[in-house]
Amino acid sequence: MSGMVWRCGHGKPAKGNFEKMREVFSPCAAAALYRRDDFLKAEGFDEDYFCYSEDVDLGFRLRLLGHRCLYVPSAIAYHIGSAVTGEKSDFSLYHGHRNLVWTFFKDMPMPLLLTLTPVHLLLNLVSLIWFSFMIQRPRVIFKAKWDALRGLPTVLRKRRIIQGRRRVHSKALLGVMSKGLPKLPRRG
């Protein structure tokens, strides 16, 4: 709901945790099947992204067109994430954080955009601070956010088309966005 993405269950064993079919917001494209006609109606992957979060963008656009996404536990996919780019590399940090901003402003319906932009901006600020001081990679994170801002005119042109095709009410979208939110540790 903030425009940040996460991988539900990443690193956890499926047995005992993820054994039921259920609806999720969007799949990881490395383990997704799309109907060809739906993929084409959503205009496929946005080539401006190049990589990282391009699957979230496509999943979001498919949602806006009224499609659902199901997690199917009997399906098996083998994928080594960041095998080429390197886990937590400058490349993946840059593209992931630039593309998060683009996805939020391109795909979020106006009522949710107005409501959630303060949270999105706050989390981007936290990212800038975190990656600058804790991870010590200020150049990469600032370049990602700067390039995201520079790309907003193109993103907003695409937004008009995407939002003009939207078939789903914001309230329904918000409901499915909030499913599977990461659980915060309990105090005490």
Walk me through this protein's architecture.
- There is one protein chain.
- The protein is built from 7 helices and 2 strands; from the N terminus they run E-H-H-E-H-H-H-H-H.
- The chain has one domain.
- The protein starts with 21 loop residues before the first strand and ends in a 10-residue tail after the last helix.
- The chain is mostly helical and 188 residues long.
- It is 51% helix and 2% strand.
- It is globular and about 40 Å long.
Helix-strand blueprint:
Blueprint: E1 22-23, H1 36-41, H2 54-64, E2 70-71, H3 90-107, H4 110-134, H5 138-150, H6 152-165, H7 170-178
Antiparallel strand pairs: 1-2
Helix pairs in contact: 3-5, 3-6, 4-5
Defining key terms:
188 residues; mainly alpha; 2 strands
Mean pLDDT: 86
Q: Which sequence of SSEs, written as H and E, runs from N to C?
A: EHHEHHHHH
Number of strands: 2
The radius of gyration computed from the alpha-carbon positions, rounded to a whole number of angstroms, is: 17 Å
Instruction: Categorize the overall geometry.
Output: globular
Short description:
The protein contains seven helices and two strands; from the N terminus they run E-H-H-E-H-H-H-H-H. With 188 residues, it is mostly helical.
